[in-house]
Design a protein that fits this description.
Number of strands: 5
Structural class: alpha/beta
CATH class of the largest domain: Alpha Beta
Number of helices: 13
CATH architecture of the largest domain: 3-Layer(aba) Sandwich
Distance between the termini: 67 Å
CATH topology of the largest domain: Rossmann fold
Order of helices and strands: HHEHHEHHEHHEHHEHHH
Length: 279
């Protein structure tokens, strides 16, 4: 009986070895395929990243946001709400994974080594007033660790003046501060329609002024786009779609990439100082 069991085990061994080889081959093929996909996908991104980096000095200074820094330091997941208009929501011809909010989520998670959830609350065509009207429902109720607020473009384009919009922005920032929600303000893009509007300087100045608050960061989108054009890292048509307003894939990528860099440096300040103190 014992001999029969030994023979049965011996006869089963080749089958087990064959299954093992098959499993290894499948795993090896899957790994190769995944690496191939990542390599192919990283091609345009890697090329874009080098071009974006040339304009990074124009995005503005990073600022430490204590609540976000604590989350990163402890390794807890981060929830970011992206509020804005069509630059945030994306245009019909722009794949969702290529708009700046999606790029921000991927790049920030890669840099801080912490899961990052992006809740996209962009709506094309909206003014500051309309965004503020849904602040409670689309932002505060979600209890975000950070609000990325892209704003001001449609207020400028309405040609009705921007004083009222600026007042609504200030009121909203006070409310966000009361709820301990730090904010990154993303200013206007550079484009023919925006650059030639008489209200653009006033809106840009108001965002610049708001960015001086301790719990508000100003991301200089217009400045970095202009820097890319001035340094011939990109042409205007490479950054702005033919409609003269909306951003291209390159502009979206650079916005998300550079925004992630700015936020990561600010949130990592606490980690760096803590490690230094431990030594």
């Amino acid at each position: 009986m014992r001999r029969d069991r030994i023979l049965m085990r011996a006869s089963a061994l080749p089958c087990q070895q064959k299954r093992l080889r098959t499993t290894i081959e499948i795993a090896a093929f899957a790994s190769f395929f995944l690496l191939l996909v990542l390599w192919l996908a990283s091609g345009p991104a890697a090329a874009f990243e080098k071009r974006c980096a040339k304009a990074e000095a124009a995005i503005g200074l990073e600022k430490r946001l204590p609540a976000l820094a604590n989350k990163v330091f402890s390794g807890e997941p981060i929830r970011i709400v992206a509020l804005g208009s069509s630059s945030t929501e994306g245009t019909p011809d722009m794949p969702r994974d290529q708009i700046f909010a999606s790029v921000l989520g991927r790049e920030l998670a890669r840099q801080v080594l912490t899961p990052v959830e992006i809740v996209n609350k962009g709506r094309g065509g909206e003014t500051i007033a309309k965004m503020v009207d849904r602040l409670q429902r689309d932002v505060l109720s979600l209890k975000p660790d950070l609000l990325v607020w892209q704003l001001g473009v449609n207020d400028v384009l309405q040609l009705d003046g921007v004083d009222g919009a600026i007042d609504r922005m200030k009121t909203a920032l006070d409310e966000l501060k009361a709820h301990d929600v730090p904010v990154v303000l993303v200013d206007l893009q550079t484009s023919p329609m925006v650059d030639h509007d008489k209200d653009t300087p006033a809106m840009q100045a108001a965002i610049e002024d708001a960015g001086r608050k301790p719990d508000v960061v100003h991301f200089h989108r217009q400045a970095f786009m202009k820097r890319m054009i001035e340094t011939r890292e990109a042409t205007p048509t490479e950054l702005v779609q033919p409609d003269g307003l909306h951003m291209t894939q390159l502009a979206h990528f650079c916005t998300g990439q550079l925004l992630a860099n700015q936020i990561a440096r600010g949130s990592l300040m606490k980690r760096v100082s803590a490690v230094t103190m431990e030594r």
